[in-house]
Amino acid sequence: MIQPRPRSIPEATVARLAVYLRVLTSFADGGRTTVSSGDLASATGVNPAGLRKDLSHLGSCGVRGVGYDVRALRERIARVLGAERSRACVLVGLGNLGSALADYAGFGSRGFEFVGLLDAAPERVGQRIGGLTVQDVADLEAVVAATQASIGVIATPADVAQQVCDRLAAAGVRSILNFAPVTLSAPAGVDVRHVDLSVELQVLAFLGQQRVPVGEASA
Question: Which residues bind DNA (predicted)?
Fold first, then answer.
């Protein structure tokens, strides 16, 4: 079993920092200059104590009685997450989900740029999606080398996802986001994050059925 590399900031905290960054960006775009820990915690769905603990990993960044400078805190989190520079990404699998990801403009504003789209289906190769032309997956290694992509996104069927993961890792990609409904294994030094939409929907369904109807609760 491959052990994850040690991190100076816990992975769960990193995930929440990304949420704080999104909310702070929204505040800054709206002209807000300061925010209290309570307001930021409420906007991000965490408790104030947990938020302050997360931000303690960044060093001193708030003023008692005043709160946080929105732009300064946003920039500090962006530096920690590496979001201040653009990251080149290749996406493999241009079905419905992959095509939607490739055509989504929001990634660019967060520092992620698709530089290569690849698919195995002849009818998809040559299509233009999100300003890029879909290339044959047989050219994956050449595309990674030419673009210096550091992140790979997998949106293929489950039965080919591991093969794609292996090829991405061998080509030098060190970060992989997997949307295929299968758990992937990767060599040491390659980080893989899994996003299984069906699992998330099942969790929501479970939570929904656990709710006690208002009528029953008041009876």
Answer: 19-58
